[in-house]
Amino acid sequence: MFASKLRRGSKDTTSAPSSSSSSKKEASSKSKKDEEKPVLEGPLLHMSFANGGKGVQWLARHVQIYPSARVVIRAAKGDKKPVASETLTGDHFVADAAGFTNGWQISDFESVLYFASATAAEKTYWMHVVGPGGA
């Protein structure tokens, strides 16, 4: 899983302890710069509930996956304010979304993010990056 890989102490999430304040500033500055650059981003359909949860709608969204295992969903590329955001944990998994063409999901059984890709190849790519052993 994308998030659990990062939490296992990869070079992306850990740094050697340092007593110098300049090293701390560099590490802080680097992590902010790294966080600003998504590992993967692009257009996907995102499913949201309508009519008080009785119906669903698929809306075109710009989705970004960050090194911190954060998924950010924006209405359009370049929008400052996200429509939704979730940080993935070791409890999240990636799976097909049965019944939806090129649909897939990220879930931890408490919350579910449903997406649909334009093609089967794109779906496989996104699932691979977000899923076990991804980015």
Structure description:
By secondary structure, the chain is an alpha+beta fold. 24% of the residues lie in helices and 33% in strands. Strands 4-3-2-1-7-6-5 form a seven-stranded antiparallel β-sheet, with helices on one face. Strand 5 (93-96) and strand 6 form a beta hairpin. It is globular, with a radius of gyration of 17 Å. Mean pLDDT is 79; it is low at 1-24.
How many helices? The count is 3
Q: What's the shape?
A: globular
Distance N to C terminus:
9 Å
Query: For the largest beta sheet, what order do the strands appear in spatially?
Result: 4-3-2-1-7-6-5
Percent of sequence in beta strands: 25-35%
The unreliable regions are: 1-24
Structural class: alpha+beta
Secondary structure: helix percent: 10-25%
Largest sheet: 7 strands, antiparallel
**Rg, alpha carbons:** 17 Å
Give the topology string: H per helix, E per strand: HHEEEEEEEH
The number of distinct β-strands equals 7
User: Roughly what is the average pLDDT, rounded to an integer?
Assistant: 79
